[in-house]
Structure formats: C-alpha cells, structure tokens
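thread from #wetlab-drylab

HS: before we spend reagent money on co-crystallization trials with adenosine monophosphate, can we at least see a predicted complex? here's what I'd submit
DV: go for it
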Amino acid sequence: MSSRYTATYDSWKRDPEGFWADAAQAIDWVRPWEKVFDSDLGVYGRWFPGALCNTCYNALDRHVENGRGDQPAIIYDSPITGSKRKLTYREILAEVQAFAAIMLDNGVKTGDRVIIYMPMVPEAAIAMLACARIGAIHSVVFGGFAANELASRIDDAAPVMIIAASCGLEPGRVIAYKPMLDKAIDMAGHKVSRCIVLERPQLAYAPVEGRDIDYASAVAAARGRTVPCAPVAATDPLYVLYTSGTTGQPKGVVRDNGGHMVALAWSMGAVFDIGPGDVFWAASDVGWVVGHSYIVYGPLLVGATSILFEGKPVGTPDPGTFWRIIDEHDVKTMFTAPTAFRAIKKDDPGGEYVKRHDLSRFRCLFLAGERADPDTIKWAEEKLSVPVIDHWWQTESGWPMVANPVGLGILPVKYGSPTKTLPGYEIHVVDDAGHQVKRGDLGNIVVKLPLAPGCLPTLWNADQRFRDAYLAEFPGYYKTADAGYMDEDGYLYIMSRTDDIINVAGHRLSTGAMEEIISGHPDVAECAVIGIADALKGQVPCGFLVLNSGVTRNACDIEADCIARVREEIGAVAAFKLALAVKRLPKTRSGKILRGTMQKIADGEQWNMPATIDDPAILAEIAEALKLRGIGG
Ligand code: COA
Ligand code: AMP
C-alpha cells in the first residue's frame, strides 16, 4: 500500500489552519476556538485562541463516558520491585479525582504551579492528570536530578505545592528522594509550604511537621469524592518542563492545553498508528518529554493503554525484560532510545532472549532521543522482525518533527535518517547567515514560523529569553540547535548539536552547566567539558581541568572532587566520570577553547590543526592526557 504521507503533507501545506481544524475534531472542547491560529498573539502566535477545554477530561472522563471505563488505561510493570498493577480508565479517573480534591483542599488553584518529583510509579501520572483537571500547571522534575537542580526549578516555577515520593529505585540501590526534596526546599529562595509525599514500601520518610501530607492517608480519606474538570483556555499552560539550556539555568518549556492535545492525538494515529484499545509503550521516564507526551497524555487522549515501566532494559533482571513486557501486555508499538537497544545488544548479541517470547502481535519499534546508529537499527530489525523507525524531535516541539509516519503508510527507510518532515513543520537547512544550503550540504536545521500546535509558545516567564535563544539568530525561523542535512528526497539527517548540549544515554545535558560547577572548585583555574563518543551511551562527558598554580594537592584528588561535585549538584544522571587535569587548554588567539578539535582527538577522528590556534603544542598535550586513559587514537 502506498503511503498517504505526501498527500497529507501537501494538504497541510495548502491550508495549515484547515488541516489543524480537522485534526481538532478528535478533541472534545468546552467552547470552540475563535481562530485556529492568531499570529498577533504571544511571541509568534497562538493556536486555538478563544477555545475552552480540559486535558484531563479528554484523557479520562470522555473514555469512561463512551464505554471504555473497564479498559486498562495504565499498566504499571516494575521488574525492579517485582510489582504490577493495572488501572482501568474508571479506576484512574477515581484516583485522579481524589487527588485533585486533596490539592483543592490545600488551596491549589487554576494557574498555580505544582512540582512533581517522583519515580516511575502510577501516582506520578495521577498527579499530572489531577493538576490538568483543576487547571494547575505541573512541572515534573526527573528523579535522577539532585537537590540543586530541583532548587533551581523551584525558584523558577514558584510552585505552591510539591508532590514527591520517599524514594526511587535504581538497580541495587534505593535513592532517597525525601532528603533531596528537603535540601532543595531549604536551598530555594521561593518557599513551599505544602508537600504531598508518597511513602513507598522500600523506604519510610520523616515528615516535616505542618508541611508534609502523607499521600496514602490523604487519598484514602478523599476516595469517592468527585471534582469537575476546570475549563481552561486552549492557550493556558498545561505544564512547564525544564530542559538543559546553554547555561546552568534550565529553560522552562511551556506547553499549552489545546494545541498540545490536537497535535498529540494526531501523532498517535498518523505517526505511531495507535488508536483506541491498542497497547502502546514508551520506555522512558515521566521526567522527560517522551514521558509527558507518550507515556501519559498521547496514549490516554486516544483511548489506548499505556505501559508505565519502572526498570532498565538490562539487569532487571535480564536483557529479555522488554520482550517479556511486549508479550505479556500485548504491546503493539514501543518507543525507546537507541541506547537501550545498544545495552540489550551488548548483553544478548545473538538475541537469545527474544526467542523466549511471543512477539507475533508486536508491530513496530520507534527510536528517538539521540542518533540511531544503523548497526543498532539493523540488529533490532533482524531480531524483532518489525519495522524500526527513527524519528526526531525535542522537548521544545513536544511531538515528532521528522518521522516515518507509520499510520499514514510507511515510507522507505534510509538508515541514519529519521525520514521526512511531518505536517505542521517546514524545515530548512541554512548556513550561519541564514541562507538555505544545497541539498546534501551540512547546515543549521531551522523550522519556519509559526511552529506547529503542541510546540512551545514561549519559555516560562521568559519571553525575551525565548526570542533570544530560539528566534533571534534566524529571523522568521525557530533554531533547533541541531545541525544536519537534507537529501534530494527530502530525508533529513541529524548530525550534531550546534550548542553545548550533549546527549548521554538519551538524556540531554549541558556541558556549560558542568563547567560552571567544576569552575567553582577552589583549586581549578579553568576547565572545559566536552562530549566524547561512547559505544553504549552515545556520548559521555569528559572534563579537562587546569589547576591553579601553587596547588599542592594531588591532581587525582581534585579530579575526584570535581566528579563528586557534578554528581552532587546535577545528579548521577550526568554520568560525569572522566576528569583529566591538564597543564593548559587549547585556545584560539582570541581565547576561545577549541572544544571541537579536542572532541575529534578524543573520538579518534581525523582532525586538522585550526589556523587560529594560539599554541599548537597544547593539542599534543591533550592527546597525551587522553591516551593515558585509553581514549583517542
Ligand atoms: N533516579 C536516580 N538515579 C538515576 C535515575 C533516576 N531516575 N536514572 C538514572 N540514574 C542514575 C543511574 O543509576 C546511574 O548511576 P551510577 O552512575 O551510580 O551508575 C546514572 O544515573 C547514569 O544513568 P544512565 O545514564 O541511565 O546509565 P545506566 O548505566 O544506569 O543505564 C541504560 C544505561 C542504557 C540502561 C539506560 O540509560 C537506559 O535505560 N536508557 C534508556 C533511554 C531512556 O530512557 N532515555 C530517556 C529519553 S527517551
Ligand atoms: P530532548 O529535548 O531531550 O528530547 O533532546 C532533543 C535533542 O536530542 C535533539 O535536539 C537532538 O539533538 C537529539 N535527538 C532527538 N532525537 C534524535 C534523533 N532521532 N536523531 C538524532 N538526534 C536526536
């Protein structure tokens, strides 16, 4: 069957507003929009102004009203704790209402921010949906982030309440969240007076008198209460999700209610080929955008069943966990990051664990979050006998910008490319002056304004930062900060970032933020952190430290201090384990550190001596320091 992709993209191109007005029929509105798009509103325009809606109603209530109440909405499968739980649409709606009642009782109002700092437990999704129900704006903070990162988000979002759990679980260890929560609240300038804490069986917590409410007892008391869905403007924020910026200060990506629902519902069908009753599994974390869009909101908006997985691709207990879940829960389509497959391939290269399960109902695997290397894709295709689809997007877009749209009919796969631009987006590849480059030539990947529904309209309380960071460099376009090229057939290839962001095991991290932390060490004069190639995680950070003259402490101790500092301030997720004390850093004559050349040396790639280098001998010193650690050529 030929793909409907071209006809669909062309129909969007001819009439973008008509296209999204049609897609919006998939959503139940309290009041329809006055305009599909108004270019005079906000920074670059707003979608569906005038409309009133509620995201929780569309994700839960209407499915119960339409007879889907007994279908599982969320299947929690936690190999790490050995527990499983199925929550039907009816059950989750009741839990969400009870939780919404507790929030209302504690003074949370429409438009208030609520931070959610929780591991992969159903209560995280319940808290998100309860916020959506009452029109509060949630901001989920990934559990792998330490107190400092949580504190910076508290100060930016100024929440009235934080919902947390006593702990998260990593293989072989319990991560106590509560001490990190208490520390973050102490550190933050903005004061939070109410926390609701879920005590997990693995770890008790010490409540702070007058501030902390116990999740289980509060919900037990509120069970059976009903809370109506608050009608909010389509343009009101549903959530703020912080993502790494080019400095230590994270950016609060704002997501609205209306455009977000329309875009996600459209993508579930057209991209992922998922509809009512299908089982969809995004093996990510609710702390990331993938978790927001494709664990919680996307599948529920279309009446599908979503898997909420607390575990790892390997080691919980073995590299067959993914196949066990697909088999046991009838997963039709799965989404994860390539790094998960690299981990499985490493532990089970022959795919022996795959053979132990019945994957005959499994239809498709989607990969995103980092470059999907052709070897990994081919391995997955061969072992799973399903199409393996690379697709490309960002926290900012909230849903895929480039993909092979399986629901419209699959396009030929080209390894190394996430395929073609989706309706809603017009993507150009431009040089630094903003001129379009020839097909096949490398350049900056930019998106013509306006962005599609569902994409960020701005940054939280920071319109000017939004303009400066994304819109100023290429007027009329949104800068993705990815570089790549488009081939003659319109297939896009993503090659690298143009800023200091690195991608570690599918996690987006700022090397600038790590440099800020290391520079704070009293013995460090200056430093540079780069991302170097890693067979499992794609990239890992590597720090180069120049010590102050006169420092008498052992360099190894200072390296260890810096590693500990990054772990303490950003969190274990930074995976910062390589710090090298060097005599000096290579720079241009104008003083810019030559990070790109250092990276090429570390990755064992061909490199040329930069014409503007101040002292060529320094690159040899860097190569030597890396070689001593077994890195580079
Ligand atoms: N809470 C606390 N700590 C966490 C955490 C969480 N939610 N998630 C990760 N960490 C810790 C890990 O335990 C690890 O700690 P360690 O340095 O003490 O070992 C550290 O952060 C780095 O984690 P990670 O980069 O994930 O490496 P890993 O070795 O634990 O696992 C993979 C490697 C490939 C198995 C893992 O990265 C994975 O499953 N990736 C899937 C991709 C994914 O989910 N991407 C999200 C975007 S789609
Ligand atoms: P995040 O905002 O955490 O989702 O990270 C977004 C960034 O991850 C993008 O800007 C890319 O740099 C990278 N990325 C996401 N998907 C892909 C992909 N399919 N191929 C290559 N890089 C990707």
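DV: Residues 89-105 form the longest helix (17 residues).
HS: ok that's useful, forwarding to the group
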